Amino acid sequence: MVNLSLFSFILNYIFKTWFRTFEENSFLTQHEQSKKHILIADDHGVIRYGIMLILKDLMPWSEISQASSFNEALDFIKDTKVDLVILDINLPGGNNIQMLELLAAVQKNVKVLMFSAYDENMYATRYLQAGAKGYLHKQTSNDEIKKAIQTVLSGRIYMSEDVKDLMLNKILNNNDNQNPLESLSNRELEVAQLLIVGNGVSDISTMLKIQMSTVSTYKNRIFEKLSVINIVQLVDKFRLWNKDENN
């Protein structure tokens, strides 16, 4: 069966993005640049500094702010209007897809560009469907980072060519040879990621602020969906199917 939600998302993306040329509104005028305020939310100072340099080269008159945790980012946009948040997917205090909902609750129309070392083939679609305006891998070239920022600021959705191909293949091939990790829900994927780095049920309960029994239920569902019986097999499954684990 075709994933109707994914199909609808792709159609919407096509009508909004593919029939408009990249040049249209992509290169901001000096006057437009002066009005842009961008927040970089990443817990690594070197990453924030690198993105800041790229932004200054791309838009010298823009205003750039920084946050090293999700709570810091959330507090900042409560008091300050921003045009774009470049958000690390693995940010302390957040580290889950609910970050998008929380940001939108504070600033309804804020644009969020996810910036992550996680495999875009497994995570990009999830975050785009949850409201992010783009998903960018941290190994991306500077030119592609600039393109992503320009695309999102101009009101469009950014996807890498790999993600576009992946989404279209899912539709055209009816999900044949699907990565089994994609069968996990967003919350199951979060729990699985925490399990494979050594967190126990109690730890995850505290981190995600949910009951231990709920964590155990998620764990059982994960094991069943991925046909594994212990954490060692779970780790092996992620290494096999998670693209970035193999790089």
Explain this structure to me?
The protein has 247 residues and is an alpha/beta fold. It contains 12 helices and 5 strands. The chain has helices at 4-18, 30-34, 45-58, 70-79, 98-106, 120-129, 142-153, 161-172, 186-196, 201-208, 212-226, 231-241, and strands spanning 37-41, 63-67, 84-88, 111-116, 134-137. Strands 2-1-3-4-5 form a 5-stranded parallel β-sheet, sandwiched between helices. Strand 3 (84-88), helix 5 and strand 4 (111-116) form a beta-alpha-beta unit. Helix 4 (70-79) runs parallel beside helix 5 and helix 10 crosses helix 11. The radius of gyration is 19 Å and the shape is globular. Residues 18-28 have low confidence and may be disordered.
Number of helices: 12
Query: What is the percentage of strand-forming residues?
Result: 5-15%
Side-by-side strand order of the widest sheet: 2-1-3-4-5
| Rg of Cα set | 19 Å
Structural class: alpha/beta
Q: What's the main sheet like?
A: 5 strands, parallel
Query: Which geometry do the CA atoms define?
Result: globular
In N-to-C order, the SSE pattern is HHEHEHEHEHEHHHHHH
Instruction: Name the average pLDDT.
Output: 82
Unreliable residue runs: 18-28
Considering DSSP H and I runs of 4 or more, what fraction of the residues is helical?
Answer: 40-55%
Task: Report the span from N to C terminus.
Answer: 32 Å
Q: Find the count of extended strands (DSSP E, 2+ residues).
A: 5
